[in-house]
Amino acid sequence: MLHRSHVLEGFALSLALLFGASFVQADILADDIDLSSFDDLQLPAPIDTQLAVIQQIGLANEASIHQQGQGLLGVVAQTGSDQEAFILQQGSQNLALINQAGVSNSAFIDQAGAYNQAAIEQAGAYNTARIEQNGDALQSTIKQYGSSQNVVVRQYR
pLDDT (tens digit, 9 = 90+) per residue, 17-44? Predict the structure, then answer.
């Protein structure tokens, strides 16, 4: 059975290869990593393209990333079973990250505008998180641990 740290270590190494070592902090690569790894991620220099990364380990997980615009980065990492993760981004220079571990968690990020950042991190079972952002320079982070929790963040500017 894979330990959560091995999954996230592989995820961090994938990002390092894509963006260079400066994108991922060294402590993300440590063996005792926890789900708070997104705290250490930083938005790379502006890019003109779109990048989507999905990494799933487990059974019956579902993920999709839809992006329209430029300089968009969407990342989903899921470990466990029956997880759902969906990212929809429109605009420019937006960042969306979803990291889930457990059973039957659902996460949704929908953002439009420029220079927005959204991150969802969940561990446990039957949790739901949703971030909706429409505007510029908006930031949201949801962290949930446990079971049967529901959080919705809506920001409009």
Answer: 444 433 333 233 223 334 445 555 554 5
Please state the domain extents for the chain: 46-156
Tell me the chain's radius of gyration from C-alpha atoms: 15
- Angstrom distance (rounded) from CA 17 to CA 155: 33
pLDDT score of 72: 95
pLDDT digits over 84-135, tens only? 999 999 999 999 999 999 999 999 999 999 999 999 999 999 999 999 999 9
Helix, strand, or coil (residue 62): strand
Under 8 Å between Cβ of 87 and 43: no
DSSP, collapsed to helix, strand or coil, labels residue 44 as: coil
Q: Work out the burial of residue 155: count CB atoms within 10 Å of its CB; fewer than 13 is exposed, 13-18 middle, 19 or more buried.
A: middle
Does the pTM exceed 0.70? yes
Contact 154, 134 (CB under 8 A): no
Mapped onto helix, strand or coil, the DSSP state of residue 97 is: strand
